[in-house]
Amino acid sequence: MHELSIAMEILEIVEREARNHGAGGVRSILLKVGDLSGVEISSLTYCFEAIRGEKEVTRDADLIVDRVAVRVRCRPCGESFPGHGPLVRCPACGGLDTELLEGDELNVVEIEVE
Amino acid sequence: MDSIKLERRILSRNDVLAGDLRDRFRARGVAVLNMVSSPGSGKTSLLERTLGGLSEEMRIGVIEGDIQTENDARRIARTGVPVRQIQTGGACHLEAAMIAEALKSLQWEDLDLLVIENVGNLVCPSAFDLGEGARVVLISTTEGDDKPLKYPAMFHSAHLMVVNKIDLLPYTDFSVDTAVENARSLNPDVKVLRTSCRTGEGLEVWNDWVRSFVKSRD
After folding, report:
1. pLDDT of A58 higher than 80
2. Which residues in A lie closer than 8 A to residue B92 (C-beta atoms)?
3. Could you tell me the CA-to-CA distances from A109 to B7, B48, B60 in Å, in that order?
């Protein structure tokens, strides 16, 4: 349910940036959403579409979501590998001492404006 | 048509506010816990059972987050510890701005420990930093021991996992070992405690953990 708060933040960020660049309207917004970000992408898209009309510049904007899978690195042996689901046991040495490389992103990457 | 590169974290406004709160807490030497769990895992019970005793050794304040009602704040108030209730009115998590607002009516500057009890929800609170020094996640033995795998973001970000209601273990299929293994597969450094608010088992170990957490902030 926090997807609505996130959609509202997206609108704020995008409106501010579009205004700073003197853009008339925003055509698309590219996001990166990691599997560990706790965000349900379909719910975020739904919320965004429900409120994008509240700002003049985002009225016609499409949301494009680039989903980022979890990738971790084993600290002792240095191997990096995808987190299969949430499990992050190292396939090389079997260790559990791992650090997250990517997968917790929740970023606005870029916007297309006109 | 032009592309504008942003590479901006969406929750950066919350992160900035939370960073500001963290600086304020640190400057005044206040240790802050953010307690998270599913509804009904026993966050309020754990606080109810331990705050009264701990408050004889240190100054404690509590912020309670709930969607509706002041029931939890009333329960905490009976321990004699000052408490503020935040009613989110439908929102499923607390945000840093709500904490900043609640602090205005709490004499937080003189506290040793501020406990924030988040809204019962294992999904949304994980994304919102509240400026805490440590995040404590509770899981109870009437839930599934695969909860860490189902809610990885929350268990990934926790400093301590408390397995509560261990008095009920004989009546459930919950395996503490499996739950711990699942949590450590996401978060190898997470500490684990076992408690029962009903029998009191493990509560002294929890108290010790709180004491050392507060000491580490001095």
Report:
1. yes
2. 1-2
3. 4, 45, 42
Q: B214 exposed, middle or buried (CB, 10 Å; 0-12, 13-18, 19+)?
A: buried
Q: What gap in Å lies between CA B118 and CA B63, rounded to an integer?
A: 8
Residues from chain B that touch A104, judged by Cβ atoms under 8 A, are 153, 156
Q: At residue A35, does pLDDT exceed 80? A: yes
Nearest-CA residue of chain A relative to B151? A38
Q: Delimit the domains of chain B by residue range.
A: 12-216
A85 pLDDT above the threshold of 70: no
Is the per-residue pLDDT at A88 higher than 70? no
Residue listed under structure tokens 């499996």 = B178
Q: Which residue would you say has higher pLDDT here, B88 or B75?
A: B75
Domains of chain A: 3-113 (3.30.2320.80)
Report in angstroms the alpha-carbon separations of B22 from A89, A105, B33, B129: 33, 22, 11, 10
Amino acid at A99: E
C-alpha dist (Å) from residue B197 to B46, B67, B92, B128, B168: 6, 24, 25, 28, 11
Q: Which of A9, A86, A88 sits opposite B13 (nearest CB)?
A: A9
CATH among 3.40.50.300, 3.30.930.10, 3.40.50.720, 3.40.50.20 for B12-216? 3.40.50.300
DSSP codes joined into one string, A8-68: HHHHHHHHHHHHHTT-S-EEEEEEEEETTS---HHHHHHHHHHHGGGSGGGTTPEEEEEEE
Contact A9 B8 (CB under 8 A): no
3-state secondary structure of B52: helix
For residue A53, the distance in angstroms to the closest alpha carbon of chain B comes to 19
Does the interface predicted TM-score (ipTM) exceed 0.85?
Answer: no
